[in-house]
Write a structure and sequence with these properties.
68% of the residues lie in helices and 0% in strands. The chain has 21 helices and no strands.
């Protein structure tokens, strides 16, 4: 199928590389299973899409899909009503799909939901090298420069657009691979493996932020291999946490728990990587509805110390982040008391995020804490309080979009539609703001554009 610009649906699937029916069908069925697990009913898990229906959606032959299809489509494209999705594409210049060959490097800067080829290629390259990695090394000055570059990257990642970061990290990772393939003295091998592992971990995180969970998992497996090669327990524990986080957001909480338990076996059993493991475990147990286990994991996280040997920055797990992981856990557990606990922890988390200097603020993480706060306030009927947080999230997302924030906004939109106050002016205003934000982003620049 070739892009004609007839519908917003066609524009989005072209940007994401889903224009082949079989590719889209797999994504659709995966989304249906996740939606069934997260919101029900279980029967949605078997939903699929036939080839004829797929093409009818793309060419504007259907404007009002059936209920199940509508829910799955709105889950796949958070914040966009199905009727808008199947309507005309917004006017104005559209981002180009990634091209092969010499233009490949520029595709990161032009479109992030169009990064399908670039992100997949980067993951494949990491996996290929992991299969043939062998000991080698380089001199101390080169290592010092690489360590400085890594610290700068992990420190700035949290408040930079994802696309430029991905491009820069990939180039530095390639340099680390070249050094590992050399024949330098072996005494520096461990440090080089740690550096390559951190860089693959950052690429995994970036792929995850772009919504490419498959590529993220490949990068994470490579990062874990390098952590094992280096005997670096801190890196191994951090990567297991990342794998758990990917599983959690992918609707696989049981896998998330498994990864956190594996990560906990890497001693020393202190440091923010282990606090993060317990906090992710709490969220996963919350998603599974296992309240006692979830609360036990939160308590375990509180008992751990925060000494760390990782580079810090995006790899650290500060108290404010621990707080909003706790708020997410309480939101999953539901009920008046858990709702109150979720609001209190999310509110405290947002205050701590805001207190940081602007250049050190964690924009994506602060947005997720705000989404927890908005959900908690929505749950107790404070629509004005929820709207205040939503507007701030949309303002940040206009500069730095991530898949996880998009998903939370989409979930909030669906919950708002079910709220008793859904017809109020405040609720209508929130929905209109979210839709306008989605359409403006599509027409101007997908995630990772310049701030």
């Amino acid at each position: 199928m070739h892009a004609t610009g007839k519908t917003l649906f066609q524009t989005l699937i072209n940007q994401r590389g889903w224009q082949d029916h079989q590719v889209f069908k797999r994504r659709y069925e995966q989304a249906a299973r996740q939606l069934a697990e997260l919101e029900g009913p279980p029967s949605i898990a078997t939903a699929t899409i036939e080839k004829r229906q797929f093409f009818r959606y793309a060419h504007g032959e259907v404007r009002t899909p059936q209920t199940v299809a509508r829910r799955v489509l709105e889950f796949m494209f958070p914040g966009i009503p199905a009727t808008r999705l199947l309507g005309p594409a917004p006017s104005g210049p559209q981002p180009e799909a990634p091209r092969s060959g010499a233009s490949r490097g520029n595709s990161l800067e032009s479109s992030e939901y169009g990064l399908e080829d670039v992100v997949t290629m980067a993951a494949t390259e990491s996996a290929r090298f992991a299969a043939q990695a062998e000991s080698s090394n380089v001199g101390p000055h080169t290592l010092e420069q690489m360590e400085a570059d890594i610290r700068r990257i992990v420190d700035s990642y949290r408040n930079r657009p994802v696309g430029p970061s991905f491009h820069e990290v990939r180039a530095l990772r390639d340099r680390a691979f070249e050094l590992l393939e050399g024949r330098q003295p072996p005494k520096y091998t461990r440090d080089l493996y740690v550096g390559a592992g951190v860089l693959c971990g950052v690429l995994a995180n970036a792929s995850f932020d772009l919504g490419r969970y498959d590529a993220a998992e490949t990068q994470a497996r490579t990062a874990f291999l390098f952590g094992e090669q280096a005997g670096h327990n801190g890196l191994c524990a951090w990567v297991r946490g990342l794998q758990a986080l990917i599983s959690y957001w992918d609707g696989r909480p049981a896998d998330a728990v498994r990864f956190t338990e594996s990560g906990s076996g890497f001693t020393p059993e202190s440091g923010t990587a282990h606090i993060r493991l317990e906090s992710i475990k709490a969220r996963a147990y919350g998603q599974l509805g296992r309240a006692d286990d979830a609360l036990g994991a939160l308590s375990a996280a509180d008992r751990l110390t925060d000494a760390d040997e990782l580079p810090g920055g995006m790899m650290a797990f500060p108290p404010e982040k621990q707080l909003f992981y706790a708020s997410s856990t309480h939101l999953w557990l539901a009920g008046p008391q858990h709702l109150s606990d979720a609001e209190a922890r999310a509110d405290e988390s947002v205050e701590m995020f805001e207190a940081a200097p602007p250049e050190r603020q964690r924009l994506g993480e602060m947005s997720l804490a705000r989404m927890d706060l908005a959900m908690a306030r929505l749950g107790r009927g404070d629509l004005d309080g929820a709207a205040d947080q939503i507007q701030k999230v949309l303002a940040i997302s206009a500069q730095r979009r991530t898949e996880s924030v998009d998903r939370r906004v989409g979930h909030f939109t669906r919950q708002l539609a079910l709220h008793p106050g859904a017809g109020s002016p405040v609720a209508v205003g929130m929905r209109e703001s979210i839709i306008a934000h989605q359409e403006r982003t599509i027409a101007e620049l997908p995630p990772g554009g310049s701030p």
